[in-house]
Amino acid sequence: MSSVREIPKDLVAFLAEEGKDYCVTHGIVxxxxxxxxxxxxxxxxxxxxxxxxxxxxxxxxxxxxxxxLVHKVSQDHEFLKEALQSTIEVDAFTAKxxxxxxxxxxEGLSQPISLGxxxxxxxxxxxxxxxxxxxIKQVEINTIASSFGGLSSQMGGLHNFILDLQNGPDPSYxxxxxxxxxxLGLATGLVDAWKLYGNESAVAMMVVSDGExxxxxxxxxxxxxxxxxPSAQMIRKTFNDISRTGQxxxxxxxxxxxxxxxxxxxxxxxxxxxxxxxMDWEVRLMLERSKAIKCPSAAIHLAGTKKVQQVxxxxxxxxxxxxDEEVFNRIRSTxxxxxxxxxxxxxxxxxxxxxxxxxRFVLKPQLEGGGNNIFGEDIVKTLTETVDVKERSKFILMxxxxxxITQNYIVRAELAEPVLADVLSEIGCFGILISRGDEVMxxxxxxxxxxxxxxxxxxxxxxSGRANLDSPxxx
Length: 475
What we know:
The chain is built from 16 helices and 21 strands.
C-alpha cells in the first residue's frame, strides 16, 4: 500500500488550519487537556489512510457474527464462570463485575431485554505492501463504553473537504471514502431499546465520568436520538449523581432525579478508576438490579473481557457457540494467537515463550480504554518480578500483529505544526444487538472507526493521547 507523498510545507500548514476549523465547525472536538471549559479539535490525520477494500468489507460482514457470539457467551453462565474462574481470583475489578452478575442472576433478572453496543477492532497483518497479501486480525472486542461512534461519523466529511482543497474535486477518489453512519446507528439502537421498554415518558440515562474529555462524541449520539424519535430523551448522570438521587421502587423501576429510566447506557464503569468508593459499586449493583435495559448488562461486560477472548480462541471453544461452518470460518479467520497465563503447564509454557522473545507479543490486562498494554522487556519484568504464578492470570498474552507501515501527517492541538510520521492504523466496526433472553430481536452492523498512530507509540487510544482519528481510503 502506498504512503503519503511529502507535500510542500506551506500547503500542509494551509490544509491543517483549514482542517482544524472544519473540525470545530462540525463538532469533531474534545475538551482541552488543560481546561475543562475549553474545546479543541480532536487529533486527526491530515489525509485518509489506505485500507484494502476486501478487508474492510470482511470486517463489516463479520460484525453481526461477533454480535451474536457475544450474545451467546453472555447467556452461557457455565462458560463465563469456567472461563473467568482463574481471573476473578486475582483481578479484583473483574471479580466485582462477576459478583454483580452472579447476585442479580441468582435474584432473578428484573429486565430480560439487553442492549449491546459493540466495537470489534482489527489491524492489518502481513509484511507485504500488497493489499492482496494482507489479512485482518482482531485486536479486541469492546462491549462497554465503545467510543468515537459520534466523532468518527464526521471524519469522511473532513477528509473530503481537505482532498478538495488539495487536488480539486475528484469524484473517483471520493468514491473510495466509504460512508460512515456510526453516530446515527448507535442512536437508532438506543432508541430501539428505549421503545422496547414500553413507556414513552421514561428516559435513557448515559452514565458518565466527571471531567469527561470525550463528551462531544457522546453528545452526537445523545442529540441524534431526538432526530430518530422526538420523544426519546437522554440525561447524563455520574455515579455520584445517581447515588444522591437514585432509587429503586418495589417493582424495580429505576428513578433518578424524578425521571423513570428506560435504558442505562454506560460510557464509564469500564475501569477501576471509575469507582472511587464503595458507594459507586452500590450504584452499579442498583442499576443492574433495576428493570431498566442495560447497555451493557454485567454478563455482556464480562463477555468482552480479554480472558474470554483468549478462551474463545482456544481449540474447541468457539464450536460451543457457532455451528454454522461459514460463520465459524469468518470469525476464526480474524483470530490471532492468544495464550493463557493461568497457573499450570499451559501457563508456564506461555511464560517461557514470552520471556524468550518478548517483542513477538503483547501482554494484556482485563482493562479497556487504551494505554494499559505491556510490551517488550516490560513483559519479562512483569511476568518474572511484578506478579507471582497465581497473579499472572490477570493477563493474557497475544501475538503482536504486524501491520504495514505507511506515512501520514498528524495534526494535534498540542503540536505547533503537523508532523509527518511513520504510522499504522486500526479499524473498528460498530454493532448493535438487542435481545430478550435467548431471543435476538435486533442484530446490525452500523458503522466504523479508524484510528492511526505513530509507530513511536506501542499502545493506542485517542483519549489516552496516542492515536488520531482517521478515515479509510479503500484500495
